[in-house]
């Protein structure tokens, strides 16, 4: 049973977290990270490329290379920072462990962490998913083709009880909000497929030139 716990929650004590494979980072990721920062008035949002993703096969571009592309994409983006903790870790990375580690480093902070609608629909397959709901303030980004009304019943129940409007004042642990952004029709899968077909991806990712120079995804 969920119990609401009002705690200290000053603006400067919030930290934005956005984990993903970023294989490669695209304009959708950037727009979401910016919207997260602005919507919740966060001093910083950390983008954390995953090392070995638990839900996918190992990607062909190395974790270090994906991380460097994220760094490049964030150059000149105020308040958006690439965090390499997961690519430095050996073995699988679970979100619950990463959030716990960041919480230990920032004991006063409310972690405001972003997850895409497609990932959210599968949340019950994630490690210790109920604890994950209490680990911070979870922010769900709607995604084209994914419908929240299709949530499995346990998750739908949690979503109904925990959801608040997205705003700086409501970003509390154990609550969920939906990021108020337009649907963003970008995906890394599509970028990889287009590059494999020899097509230009400059409209989809800010790091198209770097990808092209390195010969990734061909
Ligand atoms: P892939 O196509 O390889 O699965 P992706 O485009 O989903 O990649 P990820 O790095 O896996 O990119 O995404 C990181 C997080 O961002 C995930 O939670 C994902 O759901 C979310 N996300 C990515 N793109 C979008 C988008 N266009 N709209 C909403 N959420 C997104």
From TrEMBL:
Domain of life: Bacteria
Annotated metabolic or biological route of this protein: Cofactor biosynthesis; NAD(+) biosynthesis; deamido-NAD(+) from nicotinate D-ribonucleotide: step 1/1
A GO molecular-function descriptor: ATP binding
Location of the Cytidyltransferase-like domain: 17-194
GO BP of this protein: NAD+ biosynthetic process
Protein role: Catalyzes the reversible adenylation of nicotinate mononucleotide (NaMN) to nicotinic acid adenine dinucleotide (NaAD).
Protein name: Probable nicotinate-nucleotide adenylyltransferase
Source species: Formivibrio citricus
Originating gene: nadD
């Amino acid at each position: 049973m969920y119990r609401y716990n009002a705690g200290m929650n000053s603006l400067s004590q919030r930290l934005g977290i956005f984990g993903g494979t970023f294989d490669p980072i695209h304009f959708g990721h950037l727009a979401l990270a910016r919207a997260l920062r602005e919507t919740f008035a966060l001093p910083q949002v950390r983008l954390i490329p995953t090392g070995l993703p638990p839900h996918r096969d190992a990607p062909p571009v190395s974790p270090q290379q994906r991380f460097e592309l994220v760094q490049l994409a964030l150059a000149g983006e105020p308040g958006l920072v690439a965090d390499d903790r997961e690519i430095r870790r050996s073995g699988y990375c679970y979100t619950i462990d990463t959030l716990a580690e960041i919480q230990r480093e920032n004991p006063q902070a409310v972690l405001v962490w972003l997850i895409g609608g497609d990932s959210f629909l599968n949340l019950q397959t994630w490690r210790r998913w109920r604890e994950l709901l209490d680990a911070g303030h979870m922010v769900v980004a709607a995604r084209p083709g994914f419908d929240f009304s299709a949530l499995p019943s346990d998750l739908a129940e949690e979503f109904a009880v925990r959801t608040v409007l997205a705003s700086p004042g409501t970003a509390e642990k154990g609550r969920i909000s939906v990021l108020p952004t337009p649907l963003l029709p970008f995906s890394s899968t599509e970028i990889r497929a287009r590059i494999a077909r020899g097509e230009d991806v400059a409209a989809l990712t800010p790091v198209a030139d770097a990808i092209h120079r390195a010969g990734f995804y061909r």
